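Worked example

This section walks through a single chain of length 364. The input is the sequence exactly as stored; nothing has been trimmed or padded.
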Amino acid sequence: MRILHTEASVGWGGQEIRILDESLGMIARGHEVTVACVPGSRIHEEAIKRGVPVVTLAIGRKRLQGVCAMRRWLKANPTDVVNTHSSTDSWLTALARLMLKRKPGIVRTRHISAPVTDNAMTRWLYTKATAHIATTGESLRLMLAQENGFPLENITSVPTGIDPQKFAPMADKRAVRAELGLEADAYYVGIVATLRSWKGHQYLLEAFAQAARPDWRLLIVGDGPQREALQQRVAELGIQDRTTFTGQRDNPERWLQVLDVFCLPSYANEGVPQAILQAMLTCLPIVTTPVGAIAEAVENGVSALIVPPRNSAALRDGLLRLAGDPALATRLGAAARLRAQEKFSREAMLDRMEVVFRKACPAP
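Given that input, the structure is written out below as tokens.
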């Protein structure tokens, strides 16, 4: 198949990483894949770095210029299916498609649990212009059916798949800590996520400040628009000497391997977060929330501790429970890796997306 992924966002996070990882997987299976994105975006830079064919188009805003740019590219590059990922590029692609003689099928992937506007134009986009909808979790699939009335048979849940060889536990955490310049014997609590408000970093900071013992350290891996505000909150809580902001890292697997516990206290806009799956494969005990499709990845008390969102006290209690019960932490981590291997493999993701794309392709 000839597949085009479109992404109007200039940000960088799990959504953009999935696009590139899925593209590489499809290329390895013999498909022709291109990513269309906004000039100057991080995904453009990363696509080049990873060897994914990429083009830049003026698709960053909902304007006629973007519709025309998309139409020109699709006319010059016959495509079987376009996988759109954000609102702007979905609209531009749908409108451009109307002006093409040979119309590609459109697959709209919903990565987050934010509500979809319920009006006639949006219903047209999702049910008429789009051949199929993919979501990153079953709860997102059901939400679109229940809240928007979209037919369930036209929606497929395809959680992001993670490479279990890349994300795996290390027998010697001390060696990895030495490699990264970290303390050998500290107790490390950590989060790997873009610094956005809904990831709940602020609640983790408060929980850590309440729970931390002298040997505890907090690693905040990632970057984003909330960095300055979070650094200010760290200063207010008086935990500067125990908190490290690493910034964006290209090797998240190494940072996960040094942790004693992983925390993701999201309160909105989640599918099945890649960071949760990565932490699961790394055999880490996890404290998280039941937001979006997170509860499809982990089960409370079996493969993680799940606490209410926006609740630093509950988060603190979860961290203290794991620190005080190493046997529980080990058991949760082992169960998490097993569950991730069984349910969230990269090959399963590619298999399911191939089926979705073939269904969306126009008839010969």
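What to look for: Residues 43 and 325 are 41 Å apart (CA to CA).
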